[in-house]
Amino acid sequence: MITIGHHGYPVLTGTPENIRDQLDFLRTQRPLVKAEADGILTWLVLSYDMVQVLAIDPRVSRDLRQHGPEDLRTTTSPTAALAQINDVSNTYGEAHRIERARLSPPFTHRRVHAMEDAVQKIADRLTAQLATAAPGETVDLRQKIARPLPAEVICDLLGVPGHLRRPLLDAIDTLVNATERTSDEVACDLARLHAHVDELRAHKLAHPADDLSTAVVRPPDGQPALPAEAQRDTLFGVIGAGFETTVNLITAAFFHLLRTPACRSALRAGRLSYDDVVEETLRIQAPLAQLPFRYAVEDIRLGATTVIKKGDVISFMYAAASRDPALHADPDEFRPHRANKSHMAFGHGVHHCPGASLARLETRTALRIVLTALPDITLAHPGQTPKLIPSTVINGFQTLPVIPRPTSPQH
Q1: Burial tier of 208 (Cβ tally within 10 Å: 0-12, 13-18, 19+)
Q2: Of residues 354, 359, 103, the one with CA closest to residue 248
Q3: d(CA 324, CA 318)
Q4: Of 51, 12, 9, which is closest to residue 32 (Cα–Cα)?
Q5: φ, ψ (nearest 5 deg) of residue 69
Q6: What CA–CA distance (Å, rounded) separates 330 from 334?
Q7: Which of 68, 230, 244, 271 has its CA 20 to 30 A from that of 193?
Q8: Which residues of 102-118 are buried (b: 16+ CB within 10 A; e: fewer)?
Q9: Which one, of 337, 315, 187, 325, lies nearest residue 260 by Cα?
């Protein structure tokens, strides 16, 4: 059921599951719908084709400071807080090109390929710990595999010292994994996060190393240093993007595969690849529902009747667009064999996620190692779908209860 607000536009309400259904309904009406989400009036881009078009349109910017509405710059909410960070994802034009070039080298295909052994060693260790579960014991795979693997990988890549890892990642979790928080709670969340990131900045200034954090706070080759606020936001953005999205991708991949016995059998027989599973997971459950926000640099006319006004807020709904029935038959069915698994999970255009290759590597490595070591692992509640995290940004499960060593082996 769609609620209409006082302004005459739909209002997204309820649980993440409710909102997903509302977005699917709105997409049947139009590919682009103006609606209220998290108290913010925004144009929801719901179709795959429309995201493709607007993602490469130079009249669309991610820079709130240059092109967004004044009131959004001071709004205190988890969603607005993500839009307000001053990092590479929220820049436009030449500024974006410069900052992306600074941060992209560790995420090239060659560098990611070189990380395979390190990722495998972490996955091997975590899987060995998972295998110590007693026969029939239920454990949370999200906490045992899906969270610690990308946490260790991204912290190693950035050179985050051991004492800072848990508090920093917990602070990021708190900020991005809950939409319904008061302004005071969000302010406290941000203060805690900023304190931890500032501690990381200070550590890297005092103890430089060959890692990405040092490159942010002490740029190489005479490059100008970013202002302190931009350094802090950049570190938060890189750690958060490399951590949160991969946690939810790994969790979703295990869920969809473990509840689909035919796919699991095809994987064992070599008729299906881990890459197929990863791409279909990205399509059916993109780990980000959206990444707020974009803004119209000037009036954008789409068709005969739709005009996005200069300064209007725009939301690319990645999860909804990836399940667009105009592109995929039976979009809510997990079918890794499908020939076309096109999705928007990592965005499109100049803001395509630079860490996409690393997220794919971590996910297929986790799947391969866990399923090889524990071939009978099963969902603890195979007839149930875990609850989604209460967020309009993150699209992931709160938990994933599994039985690593079932007393009745699965075939």
Answers
A1: middle
A2: 359
A3: 10
A4: 51
A5: -70, 145
A6: 9
A7: 68
A8: bbeebbeeeebeebeee
A9: 337
HSE value, Cβ hemisphere, 13 Å, CA-based, for 332: 4
- The residue type found at 284 is I
Place of tokens 């991610």: 62
Helix%, strand%, coil% for the chain, nearest 5: 50, 10, 40
Read off the amino acid at residue 346. Answer: F
Phi/psi at 61 (5° precision)? -125, 155
**Contact in structure between 123 and 246 (CB atoms under 8 Å):** no
Q: What is the pLDDT of residues 367-400, one digit of tens each?
A: 999 999 999 999 999 999 999 999 989 999 999 9
Alpha helix (H) residue ranges in 259-388: 261-268, 274-284, 318-322, 356-373
State residue 187 phi and psi, 5-degree precision.
-60, -40
Two structure tokens written together for 398: 């709160």
Q: Give me the residue label for tokens 């071939």.
A: 375
